[in-house]
Specification:
The complex is a heterodimer of chains A (280) and B (246). Chain A is of the alpha/beta class and 280 residues long. Chain A contains seven helices and ten strands. The radius of gyration of chain A is 19 Å and the shape is globular. Chain B is elongated. Chains A and B meet through strand 6 and helix 2 of A and helix 7 and helix 8 of B. The complex binds adenosine-5'-triphosphate and magnesium ion. Magnesium ion binds next to helix 1 of chain A.
């Protein structure tokens, strides 16, 4: 069974008498343990896609299934890690934040068991020495690690991440991305990750969903580059070039403002083929 | 503070005004000392504080309940906003005549007046605080399966704590005002009476140093509550959690 399934999901917002199509007939299916990355220009509906899956928004049409069950509202089987560095509860310590989540997720476990489990997940994200600090005493990167530990502790069917490292500096960001991949390979949790950084998409994903303006899927791209992915790898560079073209941000064609609106024709990789197209 | 005291003492000694109306600070302190020794002021203070404690305690409970309900049910929010728009601007003392007609004189009328005067500013702050809780934190709560009172209790109330503490400050001040004003308007009920009654009675007998002594006690209690209670509460909570800059 597929872990996550989008079936013809559309989302239309009505804002000020005007209709904004944020998602247009999005369909794809994520297998258990897979790492999917959503990429697309700003306003292409990446956040909306995750928020529909998380249950914070209701699709206008279509349906979303998680482990075969239809999504109707927020739930612990889909844990979201937000971009917002203010997502931790400031009145709880690092341990307290994770513990609250675990106590809610595991009502049958004793406090001691939950505490041990919380420490286990905090060790996983490298924060075992900071468990008694309050969120305002942490750096941005540490806050996002706590949020990841809190989400993982609930043991969701899928982990949703909306540009979780976008507010961090480049070095911290690269480090956390690498760590996230380690955690993913240890826990084998299913991940849906949003970014608008092409390299980040290529480093992380098994499958890349390329969204276009207007919220339609431009391409579903399997990414078979061998892990760990090396930016210096010629195959990586080629894949990056093709993703650039798919996104319409062709670096060799400066000044073409409508480049991203145009459906680049005749290229074998750009058609939204149902089975996906290989990059390598 | 010291300079103010010196100026007072100096002006009083100049005898610009009759000593009866403008006593020297030393005579005020002498009166305070004897009042404390003879026991009347302590009893009056205790009586005022117990009424305020009851009224304010009830007001806090009612405010939390009202603002939680307003967060959970849009109809309650509308009703609360409408009531607040009408009743919040009404000076609490203005409802005293009606309270007296309905409930007669007595401590319970003062408690009700305190409740009324502290409830609106408290509810206004708590409600505003609850509505401005960061959306992300509320969504994290929902994501964790919290809803209804669980969400309000675990996420929204703690997140609104800075506004709640600000509301408590105003509520406390209003409660004091209400209790002192009420006792001055209709006097004491029987033998009992608080600091308001004390001030009123001492004025009646023209014991002006004692009037000032009563005011000093009110000021001292205000300072104690601010510095011991509220500052302590803030240090233990919102300052410790880095929430006080909001
Ligand atoms: N609550 C809302 N009400 C009205 N319109 C909305 C709402 N949320 C999103 N939209 C619109 O839907 C479209 C998609 O927005 P979304 O936030 O999903 O884009 P995104 O791909 O996440 O962009 P970014 O990369 O900038 O984060 C945008 O046009 C946006 O204006
Ligand atoms: Mg977004």
């Amino acid at each position: 069974m597929k872990q996550v399934e989008f079936r013809q999901v559309s989302k239309v917002f009505a804002a000020g008498g005007q209709k904004i199509v944020a998602l247009r007939e999005v369909s794809f299916a994520v297998g258990p343990g897979e790492f999917w990355t959503i990429i697309g220009p700003s306003g292409s509906g990446k956040t909306t896609l995750l928020r529909c899956l998380a249950g914070f928004e209701k699709p206008t049409s279509g349906e979303i299934l998680v482990a075969g069950r239809r999504v109707t509202g927020p739930g612990r089987d889909r844990m979201m890690v937000f971009q917002d560095l203010g997502q931790l509860f400031p009145w709880h310590t690092v341990l307290g934040n994770v513990l609250l989540a675990l106590r809610l997720a595991w009502p049958d476990k004793s406090r001691k068991e939950c505490c041990d489990l919380a420490r286990f997940y905090l060790r996983l994200v490298g924060l075992e020495e900071y468990v008694h600090l309050y969120p305002h005493q942490l750096s941005g990167g540490m806050k996002q690690r706590v949020a990841i530990a809190r989400a993982l502790g609930v043991q969701p069917a899928v982990l949703l991440m909306d540009e979780p490292f976008a507010s961090l500096d480049a070095i911290t960001r690269a480090g956390l991305t690498a760590e996230l991949l380690n955690i993913w390979s240890e826990t084998r949790v299913t991940v849906i990750f949003v970014t608008h950084n092409i390299e980040e998409a290529l480093i992380t994903a098994d499958h890349i969903v390329v969204l276009a303006r207007g919220g339609s899927v431009r391409a579903l791209v399997p990414n078979d580059l061998p892990r760990p992915r090396q930016v210096e790898d010629p195959a990586f560079a080629a894949a990056r070039q093709r993703l650039h073209e798919l996104l319409g941000q062709v670096p060799t064609l400066p000044g073409e403002e409508t480049a991203h609106e145009r459906e680049p024709e005749g290229h074998p990789l750009v058609r939204p083929a149902p089975g996906g197209v290989h990059l390598s | 503070m010291c300079a103010l005291a010196l100026v007072w003492e100096f002006l009083a000694r100049l005898r610009l005004w009759p000593e009866l109306l403008f006593p020297s600070l030393s005579s005020v302190f002498a009166s305070l000392a004897s009042e404390i020794a003879h026991g009347e002021i302590a009893g009056r203070t205790w009586y005022s504080l117990s009424l305020i404690g009851t009224g304010l305690g009830l007001a806090i409970l009612a405010s939390f309940l009202a603002s939680s309900l307003a967060m959970l049910f849009p109809a309650c929010a509308d009703a609360l906003s409408a009531l607040m728009a009408v009743l919040h601007p009404l000076p609490a003392i203005a409802i005293l005549p009606i309270l007296l007609l309905w409930f007669k004189t007595g401590p319970h009328s003062i408690v009700l007046l305190i409740l009324f005067s502290a409830f609106w500013p408290l509810t206004a702050s708590i409600h505003a605080g609850l509505r401005s809780v960061p959306v992300t934190q509320v969504e994290v709560g929902k994501n964790l399966g919290l809803k209804g009172f669980g969400l309000v209790w675990n996420v929204m109330l703690p997140a609104a704590l800075p506004a709640i503490i600000a509301g408590l400050r105003v509520g406390w001040a209003r409660a004091w005002q209400a209790s002192v004003a009420a006792e001055m308007v209709f006097g004491a009920s029987g033998k009992d009476g608080g600091l308001g009654w004390f001030l009123y009675k001492k004025r009646y007998f023209l014991e002006v140093p004692a009037v000032f002594a009563g005011m000093l006690v009110i000021i001292a209690i205000g300072l104690l509550v601010e510095n011991l209670l509220y500052k302590f509460l803030e240090r233990q909570t919102i300052e410790r959690w880095g929430m006080s800059s909001e």
